[in-house]
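Before relying on records like the one below, remember that each one covers exactly one chain. Contacts with other chains, cofactors or solvent are not represented anywhere in the record.
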Amino acid sequence: MVRYAKPKTLDEALSLLAAERWRILAGGTDFYPAQGARPIRDHVLDINALDELRGVATTSDGVRIGARTTWSDVIRADLPPAFDALKQAAREVGSVQIQNTGTVAGNLCNASPAADGAPPLMALKAEVELVSTLGARRLPLGDFILGNRQTARLPHELVVAIHVPANAIAGRSAFRKLGARRYLVISIAMVAARLVVEGGRITDAAVAVGACSAVAIRLAELERDLIGRPADAGPASVSDAHVASLMPIDDVRATADYRRTAAREIIGEALLAAAGVSPLERVA
C-alpha cells in the first residue's frame, strides 16, 4: 500500500526516511508534471510542514539557504551583489506562481541539465547539506549533481540547506539565459558569472554554464585566464578553447553547435554585466 506522510519535525522526517524508501514532495512543481496521469506507486514524504527548512540567513561562515526556500523568497531576500545572478535566475524560473511554490533545493534535486539554479549557485561555490539519522555531510554542488536526473543523495538522506561560503560572497554576479522566447521557456544555454574587480582589473572569477552538458559545469580554464584582465574585456576574454569542455546535444530546441556558439556569446555578456559594464558603455 502506498503511504503518504507529512512530518511536522525534521527528526520525524529523518526517522521515516531511515525506515523506508520515500519520494520527497516539496514545492511539487517538478513532482506533479513528472508524474503525469500515472498512478503514484511510491510512498510520498511531504516536507511542506518543516518550516525550519525555509529561509535565507547570514551565518558566521557564509549564507545558508534552507531547502524549502522558494524562488520568491530568494528574490525578496537582502543579499549582497554576488547573489545578483541567483536573483536573476529566480525571476526566470517559470511563472510567478512557480516562483512562489518551487524550491531552490528541489530545482537542484530534480537535476535537470537546464536547471536555472545550478549555474549561479556553482558560481557561488555552493555546497549542499544532507542529513540523515546517521549524521550530516556537505557536498560541493558539482559533486551533488551527478548527471541528468541523478544526484548523490542517498535514499535515507534529506537535503536541508544550500550553503554559500563566506569567500564566495565577494564581488558581483550576473545571469544570462537564452531560450526560444523571452519567458516561460527551457534554456538553450545559460551562464552565471561572478567577478571581483579591483583597480579596474579582475582579481577573482567564477563562470558556470548550464544546458550545454549533462550537468552544469564551471569553466576553470576561463576563470584562470580572466585573472588580471581588464574588467570590461568581456567577449574578448572568451575563446573557443574555453568552451571546449562543454558537451551540448542536438535536440528540438537547438543543435549542439548552436549551443556552444551561443554559450560563448552569452558568457561574454554575463562577464560585462558582472563587471558592471553595459554593452552601450563598452561601445562608447
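The chain has two domains: 50-167, 171-283.
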